[in-house]
Amino acid sequence: MIIEGAIIYSNLLVLLALGLTLTYITTNVPNFAQGSYAIVGSYVALTLLKLFGICPYLSLPVLFIVGAIVGLLTYLSLKPLIKRNASVEMLMIATLAIDLILLGVIGAYSEVLSQIVGSTQAKFVFANLDFSIFGFRGILFVSTLVVILLLFGLYLLLYKTKFGIALRASMENPSLAQTMGIDVEKTRLFSWILSGALAGVAGGLLPFMQEIVPATGDLIIISIFAASIVGGLRHISGALIGGYIIGISESLITYYLAMAFGAGFLVYGKVVSLIIMIATLLIAPYGITGVDWKKVRKRLFSQ
Amino acid sequence: MVIRMIKIKNLNAGYGKLQILFDINAKVEKGKITTVVGPNGSGKSTFLKTLFGLTKIYSGEIIFNNKNIAHVPPHQKARMKIAYLPQTNNVFADLTVEENLKIAGYVLDKDKVKERIEIALNIFPELKNILKRKAGTLSGGQRQFLAMGMALVRDAEVLMLDEPTAQLSPKLAEVIFGKIVEMRDEFGLTILLVEQNAKRALEISDNGYMFVSGKVAFEGTAEELLNHEKFKEYSLGITAL
Amino acid sequence: MSFDIISMILLWFGLYYIVSLSLNMEFGYAGIPNFGKALSVLVGAIAVGGILDRLLMLYFKINGDFITGSTYATSAINTIIASHPIVGIGILILAIILASILGLIVGAIFILPSAKLKEDYLGITLLAISEAVFLICTYNLNIIGGYYGISTPDILAFVSGEYRGWVFAGIVLIIAFLVFLFFERLLNTPFGRVLRAMRENENTVRAFGRNIMMLRIKTMAIGSAIGAIAGVLYSLYTVNIIANAFTRVDWTFFPFLMVLLGGKGNNKGVALGVLCYVVIKVLLDIYKYNIKYALNIPFEPVWLSYMLFGVLMLLILYYKPSGLIPEKPILTPPMKKKIAEIKQ
Ligand SMILES: Nc1ncnc2c1ncn2[C@@H]1O[C@H](COP(=O)(O)OP(=O)(O)OP(=O)(O)O)[C@@H](O)[C@H]1O
Ligand SMILES: [Mg+2]
């Protein structure tokens, strides 16, 4: 049961960390608003459910698009700063500002929605809507399926299309990519759109897992960063590895702590991911995918 | 009469506020090899980067086919049949050799890319056996072949090569020089070459420029440069202006 | 009514000026993007709620659980303060000393894991640490009462209610002024200049044999100690602590807004930034429902204020990245001489 939760959580973290890593690679912006992107998705899903009776699973394509728009808007508002070569601190502050704006919009919207629906919508879950197969929760299958589909799509895009190869080329060396005739600006734009879209989808699934309030984004952002950093912010595959490491250890360690010391320890989940993140930064600052494994092997064998 | 391919007028450029190039005037002739030599840090690489739009241009003109392209962004220059081979990081390490060659033909249509890759592989047959390898795992020589091959795939009329023989064994460097000559003579390409190995480079060149401290110290035919009284002194990189 | 507004503005100005001054040293001078500023303020609350309250419980020999125990302990001390004002002042000083020590330690430890990191990883780590401690303090009721809250001593129990706000604002302003003097002094020493040099280029500082890590640790220790003083004052002013109050938005984001608005690297500019923000904040706080009904906004005004301040931050970054009063170049004695020569 607890493993089920760990896998679901990891699946969602992978989607979110993927977006964070993607935009970090292309534009060098650590995006503190990534968590709130997901919550935008959650509230859109809630709206579709309450007003039109659409099951959240079916609204995922819509969330993909809504998320994409949020990502696009973020990039457009960061663009003047990126153009001016603003320092990374300034860019981080800008994403904090965007996060705050999103929080304001989500909070305001949740109250407006409450008035339309006629009951408070500030807090909600979808878990009660979920189906189950063989005693497993539907979200386990759906989130796994979504991750597999999106990753497969991303793989096809990145490795099998011309645009994808260009995207990878500009991630690695933007100025060389430019000399090949690639419009690096387009690939940046695309990465932000995709990042938002992935987060939007994650947002539709998140309420099956945990209760959502407008500020939930600020809570999950720690785990997202931990996942990306542990995996390595410089490689897309890092998000995948980091997502599962953080997701599973956060769930499992917290669970066993709670078993041993009582339910009060359930809140220590974020501390677990924080500790793993700091340990990674100390041992391998560029994360698991940033480690030069050949060197490590050599060192191990030479001893 | 010689046909001018690129003409550079009173060019001032640099990085941000740091000016590196001062009032450069130069020309690159069609179907010839023009070589820029000079001590380390004299601004040779910056000159090529500037022609490709990768630095900040304060003033001056770069006339190409009767148009001033000084302020055309790099990715559009790639569509003007100009190819540029940087001194460092000139291949995508995370991409395979094949992907690198494909990406080099980014602005061409599909069939054309295939055709150009054929041509490049014929000139650099060494690449044929390593098409699936990641470029990051290649040896220095292989990487340089790939970078040159990529420049060829571009189907450009002008090739700007920044130290294509750097860090290669003298034997390999000779091979590369041979290929450069081949490109000029067989394909009629216009080549702008930057070389550390000044003497050898000028021997295969038609014209040359000596850069010192971001300025053109002297210029002329390759022969004139080789025989210039100060050539040795400067090309050993001892003096700065 | 309007009188209260002024005392509120003065009080918040003092509190936020202390926090912003410390942030300005960390971020404006030393270039450390301390996105975990809120932690230092929370440390002040821990010094008051977690330590001082427990000391009082020990002193009055109150047993039992922490939350109710501290209620008894504070009311006991409040009765004493009501007749002996000096005890109130003593408690204030004690709390400030406790908080400064705790802040120094926490600040030094806080930066340790990230002392070698580049700006972006540094900022992320600081934010994550601060947020994690905030969560623990909120959900673990045994530290400072968590979301449930605990009471703290009323150091002005001897002042009648109508003047309390004014007296407290006065105390906060005096301390803010002392903090200002402290920083003006500190930042004009070689230490301050090295900090700026570190911001511009770490390698030159390294070349001069200064240890970047040591500099960062010192900076964050001092910055956190000062931030903790603000936390103490805030906790004592409100006479109770609710952990949820020490949010990232209120104590990290808004201080950044004030520093950037005023002009980072310039303590006087920051004062202007703080004043601008505080005036808007207090007016919004007091008139929020008037605004809500006047404009017919269908939601809590706090959300609107988030949007407004978020947009304001972006506008500052776009149009006034060096703030209303930009940083002045450092005038070392040799430079002053040069300028005098040129003028002649
Ligand atoms: N990206 C950059 N930013 C700032 N300054 C740079 C940059 N690249 C080069 N420079 C400076 O510009 C000057 C000229 O460098 P450039 O690379 O053009 O020299 P070069 O003639 O190609 O030297 P070499 O023979 O060593 O390749 C040097 O002083 C160098 O430090
Ligand atoms: Mg060079």
Walkthrough of the structure:
The complex is a heterotrimer of chains A (303), B (241) and C (344). Chain A is an all-alpha fold and 303 residues long. Chain A has a domain at 2-213. Chain A has helices spanning 2-27, 34-52, 60-83, 88-117, 138-160, 162-172, 174-179, 184-205, 216-231, 236-261, 269-283, 293-302, and strands spanning 132-133, 136-137. Chain B has a domain at 1-80 and 194-241: P-loop containing nucleotide triphosphate hydrolases (Rossmann fold). In chain B, the strands form 2 sheets. In chain B, strands 6-7-8-3-9-10 form a 6-stranded mixed sheet, sandwiched between helices. A 4-stranded antiparallel sheet of chain B has the order 2-1-4-5, covered by helices on one side. Chain B is globular. Chain C has one domain (3-248). Chain C has helices at 2-29, 37-59, 66-83, 85-111, 119-139, 141-144, 161-187, 190-200, 202-207, 212-238, 248-262, 267-295, 301-319, 333-343; strands at 150-151, 240-241. In chain C, α1 (2-29) runs parallel beside α7, α2 (37-59) crosses α11 (248-262) and α3 packs across α4. The radius of gyration of chain C is 21 Å and the shape is globular. The model of chain C has no long low-confidence stretch (mean pLDDT 89). Chains in contact: A-B, A-C. Chains A and C meet through α3, α4, α9 and α11 of A and α5, α11 and α13 of C. The structure holds adenosine-5'-triphosphate and magnesium ion.
